[in-house]
């Protein structure tokens, strides 16, 4: 099964505010972009992924993610994360109605293509499925089989909300890179320990130099 991933990317100036203890206002946009670029590059390298649709209104993010090979969908609803994901999924399905779709967080800088393939293979057994984040509270991946609405419910306590919506919770070991999103400085340190992509590594190295 070949999936289309829908990846939402906030305007970079507003992204990753919870990293203020680690990166200042001048650094956070570049760090958020690095996360997204490493996430999308890894997703495009996954054998189970046919393509990636990025939903964003940020011109720089759209330009650089398109250069990697992602399709860019304008965030026309401008109604928040779930509206953006529903819009992106609808755009994908309008072009290819029989496509299985998955919403993937844009802040998975340690993402490994092989681990993502394992998660998608497991998800393909169900009509809708999701993978909880490393904290066990949120969600990093939500999938929908062909002919099924994605029905995203990201946000606070999304693990419980996706479970309540009827999506099957995936319980897999050895897929840490797909679960480790980055919202805080502690999350970033954990992702760095797992091994992040080259763009995130470069920005993180500058952060460490600046902090000396």
User: What is the number of E strands?
Assistant: 7
Number of helices: 8
CATH-derived architecture: Alpha-Beta Complex
Report the biggest beta sheet as strand number plus sense, adding barrel if it closes.
7 strands, mixed
Strand content: 15-25%
Chain-averaged pLDDT: 95
**What structural class do the secondary elements suggest?**
alpha/beta
The percent range for helix content is 40-55%
The unreliable regions are: none
**Level-1 CATH class name:** Alpha Beta
CATH superfamily: Spore Coat Polysaccharide Biosynthesis Protein SpsA, Chain A
- Globally, the shape reads globular
Query: What order do the SSEs take from the amino end to the carboxyl end, as H and E?
Result: EHEHEHEHEEHEHHH
The CATH topology comes to: Spore Coat Polysaccharide Biosynthesis Protein SpsA, Chain A
Record the strand order, biggest sheet. 3-2-1-4-6-5-7
Query: Whole-number radius of gyration?
Result: 16 Å
Number of domains: 1
Distance N to C terminus: 48 Å
């Amino acid at each position: 099964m070949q999936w289309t991933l829908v990846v939402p990317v906030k305007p970079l100036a507003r992204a990753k505010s919870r990293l203020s203890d680690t990166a200042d206002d001048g650094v956070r946009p570049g760090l958020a972009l690095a996360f997204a670029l490493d996430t999308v590059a890894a997703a495009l390298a996954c054998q189970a992924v046919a393509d990636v649709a990025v939903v964003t209104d940020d011109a720089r993010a759209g330009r650089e993610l398109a250069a990697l090979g992602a399709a860019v969908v304008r965030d026309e609803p401008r109604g928040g994360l779930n509206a953006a994901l529903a819009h992106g999924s609808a755009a994908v399905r309008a072009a290819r109605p029989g496509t299985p779709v998955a919403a993937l967080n844009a802040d998975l800088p340690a993402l490994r293509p092989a681990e993502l393939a394992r998660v998608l293979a497991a998800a393909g057994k169900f009509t809708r499925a999701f993978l909880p984040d490393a904290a066990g509270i949120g969600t990093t991946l939500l999938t929908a089989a062909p002919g099924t609405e994605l029905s995203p419910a990201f946000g606070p306590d999304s693990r419980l909300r996706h479970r309540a919506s009827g999506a099957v919770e995936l319980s897999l070991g050895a897929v840490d890179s797909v679960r480790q999103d980055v919202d805080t400085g502690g999350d970033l340190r954990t992702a760095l320990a797992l091994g992040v992509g080259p763009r995130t590594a470069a920005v993180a190295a500058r952060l460490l130099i600046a902090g000396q």
